[in-house]
Amino acid sequence: MQIMNFENTYSDIRSVAVVRTDRIGDIILTLPMCVGIKEVLPNVKLTLIARRYVEPVLFKCQVVDNVVFIDDYENNFKTIFTNISPQVAFFPRPRFNEVYYAFKSNIPVRIGSAYRWYSFLFTHKIKEHRKIAKFNEARYNLRMVEKFFRRNLDLKYVKINVKPEAETKILEMLEILNIEKNNFVILHPGSGGSTITWPLFRFTELAQILIQTGNKVIITGSSQEIPLATEIQKMVPEVVNLTGRLDLYEMIALISLARGLVANSTGILHIASVLEIPTVGLFPNTPHLSAKRWGPIGPFSSTISPMTTNPEQFDDMSIITPDIVFLELQKQISKKEAK
Fold first, then answer.
1. 11, pLDDT greater than 90
2. Integer Cα distance of 282 and 110 in angstroms
3. pLDDT at residue 193, as a whole number
């Protein structure tokens, strides 16, 4: 990895940017590297470049000093980099246009993967293939910081802040629904198309078990996922279906008041995890989709994947039975209650 002279005097670094322009879970797993940067350089101005879609996740975030949303600049990275003028830019998930304009803007240090066709645009190349899932995504991101600064750092998750107005609205909604806070479980059956999912009939069976054991159950999802929730509600009419009814601020508030959450590999899972809600994530075994790569990092989170020696069932999510998921959720709930 190429080393520039001023790395030996880190005090000369006054401005750093982290570019992460994908989805909710990706941002949550990127924030620990921001913590690491601040540990090495407490006085640096740290800018996170992201999509406005993730803004609620960054509400009053104390880890970064500035957030730039690419939507506000019509994805014009030339203008963005000219405005913030970072001395160092980290690209944990690089895209060509982002890296190209960092190069054109003469950002002195550009750090990213050694395995892109445009990697010659980086001054510092990280030789790690993330697709083999040797580490969690959050650890891969933090390792970029460790390699550049030649420091070992602890991985620390960043807890999300709940917007007070959203919490008030959700508390009012729960009162109308006659549901007490911290006394309901959220099932989130969708995934946004980002992974192989646990079958809908399994979510339905889990909802039945939860209801039979005295739990209130709320189904959530985006407006595109309403058909999924409707199918569950047909089979288990006792569930409360809030799919498509909440914005992201409200969804965060709802999760923060839940007793537990079960979801596929999706941003909602990661939100619950760092909100310290007992969480069970359901993941396939394929390395680049696996829990080892994309698992949640909060203290009361666990994951379940298909357990099989049959190669044809390697990613058969139906193998995961609802009783196993229920018991794992109860385990995480007990763990939190015992704390």
1. no
2. 35
3. 84
Homologous superfamily of the 5-149 domain (CATH): Glycogen Phosphorylase B; (3.40.50.2000)
CATH 3.40.50.2000 in the chain is located at 5-149, 164-338
DSSP state of 315: T
Place of tokens 């039975």: 321
User: Class of the 164-338 domain?
Assistant: alpha beta
How far, in Å, are 29, 96, 103, 235, 330 from residue 337 at the CA level? 25, 46, 50, 31, 10
Q: Token pair of 212, please?
A: 């039979």
Encode burial over 262-274: b for 16+ CB neighbours within 10 A, e otherwise.
Answer: bbbbbbbbbbbbb
Rounded Cα–Cα distance for residues 277 and 271 (Å): 9
**End-to-end Cα distance, the chain:** 43
Whether the CB-CB separation of 185 and 217 falls below 8 Å is answered with yes
Label residue 192 left, alpha or beta by phi (over 0 means left) and psi (-120 to 50 means alpha): left
pLDDT digits (tens, 9 = 90+) for 115-155: 999 999 999 999 999 999 999 999 999 999 999 999 999 99
Angle between helices 96-104 and 77-84 (to 10 degrees): 50
Q: Looking at residues 318-339, what average pLDDT do you find? A: 97
**How many angstroms separate the CA atoms of 133 and 221, rounded?**
27
Q: Helix crossing, 248-256 with 267-274: angle to 10°? A: 50
Can you give the pTM of this predicted structure? 0.95
Residues 244-270 pLDDT 10s: 999 999 999 999 999 999 999 999 999
